[in-house]
Amino acid sequence: MNRLSWLHAWLMLLPALAMLLAFTHIPTLTTVWHSLFFPERGGAPAEFAGLDNYRMMLDDTVFWQALSNNLWYALGTVPTSIALALAMALWVNSKISGRTALRLAYFTPTMLPMIAVANIWLFFYSPEIGLFNKVLALFGHPGINWLGDSDWALPSLMLMTVWKEAGFFMIFYLAALQSLSRDLYDAAALEGAGRWHTFRRLTWPLLMPTTLFVLVNAILNAFKLVDHLFILTKGGPNNASNLLLYYIYENAFSFFDSNYAATLTVVMLALLILLALLQFGVLERRIHYR
Predict the structure, then answer these.
(1) Looking at residues 107-111, what average pLDDT do you find?
(2) How far apart are CA 29 and CA 44, in angstroms?
(3) Can you name the CATH fold of 53-286?
(4) Torsions phi, psi for 177 (to 5 deg)
(5) Sign of CA dihedral 184, 186, 191, 194
(6) Which burial class, exposed, middle or buried, applies to 242 when counting CB atoms under 10 A from its CB (0-12, 13-18, 19+)?
(7) Could you give the maximum distance between any two Cα atoms of the chain, in Å?
(8) Could you say which of 25, 89, 156, 262 would form a disulfide bridge with 35 (CB–CB 3.0 to 4.6 Å)?
(9) GO annotations under biological process (predicted)?
(10) Phi, then psi, of 44 in degrees rounded to 5
């Protein structure tokens, strides 16, 4: 490559690199730097704290509660959303009548704004007039305080998230299914392979690149939920539904402790990087790109 081509290539990359530096790398480094200071108090300048903010975090019971909630939330929503999305994609990809309307019905929750979704489900979960308790009343059940009970608040958020995200992930699986060669399935049919055997030995391995993409996005979504919490529970009751990003939001904008919020952000970023490395390390060897 001559110098002119080399220069042209870097000039083409420059806008993307500038955006990446301005909105990703520089804010990340700034966050790490702020996590090493105590916040300003009474007009006094910020004092260097070293790792004291991280030590304080280790003693913070709310942090551990939010982290535990987030891990359970991810464990409950990610596999369920992916499995449901795949099942829906297989169904609407088959030769059934009205499949276009069915695809639209599955994808509709994805098109709704998050605040609108939270308000819809707030009506569903209302203790006295909510849809779910009205249905339970038909069977003689007194009803459940879905968002006010510590045992039900987090599962209620999980159910809403699965409803919101499964249709979005279905689109990727549907596109992947439609790109698979029919010759492979014709060959499997000639060999006498049944539906389950064809799915397990043919469809599922060929969908692994899509599954990796969906898995990464699902885990990222599980750790960036704020909108729904702000409308539905605000992390309550007694932090039973508090998640890590919402706790960061609380510290930054409710408690005005941006330095501790930066500390929590660094931990969340480290956790997401670790999960991403684990996903790519485990799944990459099982992916067939061709």
Answers:
(1) 86
(2) 24
(3) MetI-like fold (1.10.3720)
(4) -65, -40
(5) positive
(6) buried
(7) 80
(8) 262
(9) transmembrane transport
(10) -75, 145
pLDDT tens-place string over residues 233-255: 999 899 999 999 999 999 999 88
- How far apart are the C-alpha atoms of 45 and 41, rounded to whole Å? 7
Q: What is the distance of C-alpha 237 from the center of its chain?
A: 22
Average pLDDT over residues 164-176: 93
Give the lowest-confidence range in 1-5, 28-32, 63-67, 155-159. 1-5
Whose structure tokens read 């535990």? 68
Kindly list the distances between the CA atom of residue 276 and the CA atoms of 71, 140, 237, 269, in Å, as whole numbers in the listed order.
14, 47, 31, 10
Q: Helix/strand/coil (H, E, C) string of the chain?
A: CCHHHHHHHHHHHHHHHHHHHHHHHHHHHHHHHHCCECCCECCECCCECCCHHHHHHHCCHHHHHHHHHHHHHHHHHHHHHHHHHHHHHHHHHCCCCCHHHHHHHHHHHHHCCHHHHHHHHHHHHCCCCCHHHHHHHHCCCCCCCCCCCCCCHHHHHHHHHHHHHHHHHHHHHHHHHHHCCHHHHHHHHHCCCCHHHHHHHHHHHHCHHHHHHHHHHHHHHHCCCCHHHHHHCCCCCCCCCCCHHHHHHHHHHHCCCHHHHHHHHHHHHHHHHHHHHHHHHHHHHHCCCC
- pLDDT > 70? residue 286: no
Cα of 99 vs its chain's centroid, Å = 27
> Residue 37 pairs with which residues in a beta bridge?
48
